[in-house]
């Protein structure tokens, strides 16, 4: 039993290391501004994915509150829905606030 746990731990560590070592590299060879822009795009893509997940969860929560006639769950659902929209469109909101077109 102890040997089996050790083999599973080594296997899990190997898979983890293979996953970490094969990550995409978002870098350019020449311009450092391009590197920063690529990193910024990657981070905003992650933020957008989290916002879309929250948006979907808010829609489900509002739907469930309409079925169960629960006003507090409905309020929480609408707050989650609004938060998901704000998070999903954070980059566009920041660009509007700063007046940049990119």
Characterization of the model:
The structure is a single chain. This protein has 102 residues and is an all-alpha fold. It has helices spanning 2-21, 32-68, 71-88, 90-98. Helix 2 (32-68) packs antiparallel against helix 3 (71-88). The mean pLDDT is 84.
List the helices and strands and how they pair.
Elements: H1 2-21, H2 32-68, H3 71-88, H4 90-98
| Helix and strand pattern | HHHH
Q: What overall form do the CA principal axes indicate?
A: flat
Gap from first CA to last CA: 57 Å
User: Which secondary-structure class do the elements indicate?
Assistant: mainly alpha
Helix run count:
4
**Percentage beta strand:** under 5%
Main beta sheet: none
Residue-averaged pLDDT: 84
Helix coverage percent? over 70%
Let me know the number of strands. Answer: 0
Radius of gyration: 21 Å
Note poorly predicted spans.
none
Question: Could you give a short description of this structure?
Answer:
By secondary structure, the protein is an all-alpha fold. Helices cover 82% and strands 0% of the residues.
For this entry, give a set of tags:
102 residues; mainly alpha; 4 helices
